[in-house]
Design a protein that fits this description.
The chain is an alpha/beta fold. About 50% of the residues lie in helices and about 10% in strands. It is built from 29 helices and 20 strands.
């Protein structure tokens, strides 16, 4: 066997050890799970074996299923169901064996790895802060399909099962013990295999609790689902799930179904119920999209796969951050968190100190929540050195400029900084709108000049647009990507252009929302439909956050505005200057922001833009999404982006584009190429050229026919 080792000691204890070849972690796929069950079968049928320990030769137990295998899985539904039932039968063979089986859990035991452990009679977990267990499949559009829903249900009851699985919770050893998911904790210095063996020798006769005829599912008075107070609970759970997913996430609906229907039957029938819902989920478009985008694309990007070939890993010790406002302070924090020394420069020492105080606030919150300690926070904060002296930047090996979006100011700080830093040091700008090639005119070394566009708040937003100017070298690009991955952010490479990718496409979403308001579509409808289609916030609310004054400033400097955008600029100017409603900062925008109470939409919009009584909610949602998708393709078509996957990553992480669609390019496949083309044509006829598809996209769609336009799976 290549992935599993099998040994028997002198006391008749079989050790089945996961050690997947050519992989840093143990993963479950056809090859590895087949070897595992072969070893289990061998141990169960060997009379010399008294008990079995399932463990790992790697740091972690098992990280879960191989999601790339799931994405490229091409069997039929019937074949998938039969394969899944064979897995259930093999795991039931473990449970029904009279030989005790112990799972020795080290590091992480997630997804399918935990499901294997749940089929063991006893679970011992090493108690260390980094060690976690959890059924986390919902985070990638799936749900537990190897018995996890039914064994969790029988260990925890429905309430915690639904909470833990739908929220993909990872539990510490202490919490897992408290919940009864593990039976015993081992200290990091303990020999966990020796503890497992000792338990087997003391417990030669075993049975799983759910194989006892008197077993009752916790939280159900007699084990049957249809009990007063229990069915009602599921109704509430369904309502809460719909409130957050709007029916866009079939895996959430299916996991609730599997838990509900599995609660009213025996374990074997319950596992069949789970298998049927799992197969239905596996074959849904949404699940394929989420796996592709969240796991494959974002996972590859976070590892720096976009880095040009042939360059050594760039190393950094000290980073200089220019500007200690919200963005600069955030960049300083994530850099220090990654172990780098940071020189945080502002025009005044007071301003720089205020920027450092932001990091202190973030760390204090973590301490209050028990996620850090005073000592760890002090070490991090000691790495941030506030200053108002440009000479303090001279030993930095990377500069990141995060001053206000003013061209002359950026030119000034570039020149004064380059005067003190070494010639080989990369200079990066955090600009969100000004072309990098334009900013590089102030630099004496434009080949070392690049854009690093972070998103606010920096400590929470994982995307960074790495923007390449006309003279930016591949070596600079490679080194910039190394920095982004070091601070554990996700880089996408964007070629130069006004607004780059995310800022530009974000503008289309906002513009469409404001245009609908002027057409008389009720603002509450616009905002609610945006959430219904999966956007995290409506276009009017986000406009208030960004501020309409800033939007006007950006539009006034853009020579490429279309006729539609020029008219919109006049509308926004009227809202700002005549209506005096620039945004949240001033307390008055599309919403009112009372000092006491919650924000609410301004009631007078219907008197300014007469209210439409006939509107199509589907069309409203499509307009918001199509506006972003079509402009994203234009970015790809013009070379601002070079890969469709970068558009998908950037739209999900930077714009909050609905993940169940897979991102802006995947959305075309999600809708279906021909259907997308036809619907866009209808919107273009009704609302104008902004919905007109580029000829190259029409050609792609027609060439694809009934197949997908961008991705095979």
């Amino acid at each position: 066997m290549q992935h599993i080792t099998y040994t028997i000691d002198t006391d008749g204890i079989a050790f089945i050890t996961w050690d997947v070849a050519n992989s840093p972690v143990n993963i479950m796929n056809v090859a590895t799970i087949s070897e595992f069950f072969t070893a289990i079968d061998q141990a169960i049928n060997d009379e010399a074996v008294k008990g079995i320990v399932v463990n790992s030769a790697k740091r972690d137990f098992i990280a879960g299923g191989d999601l790339k295998w799931f994405l490229n899985f091409e069997a039929t539904k019937k074949e998938s169901f039969e394969m899944l039932m064979k897995t259930h039968q093999a795991m039931r063979q473990m449970e029904l064996s009279t030989k005790p089986i112990v799972a020795a859990l080290s590091g992480l035991a997630l997804g399918g790895g935990l499901e294997i452990a749940l089929a063991c009679n006893h679970r011992i977990m090493t108690d260390h802060p980094t060690n976690k267990i959890g059924l986390v499949e919902c985070s990638v559009g799936l749900f537990p399909g190897a018995g996890g829903t039914q064994r969790f249900l029988r260990l925890l009851g429905p309430r915690k099962t639904i909470e833990y699985i739908t929220q993909s919770k990872k539990l510490s050893a202490e919490q897992a013990l408290k919940d009864g998911l593990v039976h015993q904790l081992a200290a990091p210095t303990d020999d966990i295999n020796a503890l497992a063996k000792a338990w087997i020798l003391k417990n030669p006769e075993v049975t799983q609790p759910w194989d006892d005829k008197r077993f009752v599912v916790p939280g159900t008075p007699n084990g049957i689902g249809q009990i007063s107070g229990f069915t009602e609970f599921y109704s509430v759970s369904n309502a809460m799930a719909y409130k957050t997913t709007h029916g866009n996430m079939p895996h959430i609906k299916n996991v609730l179904n599997a838990i509900y229907h599995g609660s009213s039957t025996g374990i074997d029938k319950a596992l069949e119920v789970e298998a049927r819902y799992f197969v239905d989920t596996l074959f849904s478009k949404e699940t394929k999209n989420i796996i592709r985008a969240a796991f494959v694309f974002i996972g590859d990007a976070s590892k720096g796969k976009a880095k040009p070939k042939g360059f050594e890993q760039a190393t950094y010790k000290k980073v200089g951050v220019l500007g200690a406002g919200m963005m600069g302070a955030g960049i300083a924090y994530v850099s220090a968190k990654a172990g780098l020394d940071v020189v945080l420069k502002d025009v005044s020492l007071e301003g720089a100190e205020k920027g450092k105080a932001y990091s202190n606030q973030l760390e204090q919150k973590k301490i209050d929540q028990g996620r850090s300690s005073e000592g760890k926070s002090a070490q991090l904060l000691d790495k941030i050195h506030p200053t108002d002296a440009v000479d303090d930047l001279k030993n930095c090996d990377l500069i990141i400029e995060a001053v206000f979006e003013n061209l002359e100011l950026k030119y000034k700080v570039t020149k004064e900084t380059e005067a003190v830093i070494s010639p080989e040091v990369i200079y990066a700008s955090n600009t969100s709108t000004i072309p990098i090639t334009t900013l590089a005119k102030a630099s004496s070394k434009p080949d070392k000049f690049i854009g690093l566009h972070f998103f606010s708040p920096v400590d929470k937003m994982s995307l960074v647009e790495v923007i390449v100017g006309k003279e930016t070298s591949d070596e600079t690009l490679a080194a910039a990507i190394d920095y982004v991955t070091k601070i554990r952010k996700v880089p996408i490479v964007v070629n130069d252009g006004r607004g780059f990718f995310t800022s530009r496409v974000f503008g289309k979403f906002v513009n469409e929302g404001i245009a609908m308001l002027t057409e008389g579509i009720p603002p509450a409808v616009i905002e609610n439909v945006a959430k219904k289609i999966g956007m995290p916030v409506g276009p009017l609310a986000i406009s208030d956050e960004v501020n309409l004054k800033l939007m006007l400033d950006i539009m006034s400097e853009d020579p490429t505005l279309t006729d539609f955008e020029k008219e919109l600029e006049k509308t926004i100017s009227t809202i700002v200057h005549t209506r005096k409603r620039p945004g949240k900062k001033e307390g008055k925008g599309f919403y009112d922001y009372p000092k006491e109470g919650k924000k609410h939409l301004w009631k007078e919009w219907s008197t300014i833009y007469p209210k439409q009584t006939k509107y199509n909610e589907e069309e409203i949602g499509k307009r918001l999404l199509f506006s972003m998708v079509i402009d994203s393709y234009r970015c790809l078509d013009s070379g601002v982006l070079t890969e469709p996957r970068d558009a998908d990553i950037g739209s999900i992480l930077g714009l909050g584009f609905p993940i169940y669609t897979g991102g802006v390019m995947s959305y075309i496949d999600y809708i279906g190429g021909q259907q997308f083309k036809d619907y866009a044509a209808g919107l273009a006829e009704k609302y104008g050229e902004r919905f007109q598809l580029p000829e190259s996209l029409i050609e792609r769609i027609e060439k694809a026919g009934t197949n997908r336009v961008f991705y095979k799976n």
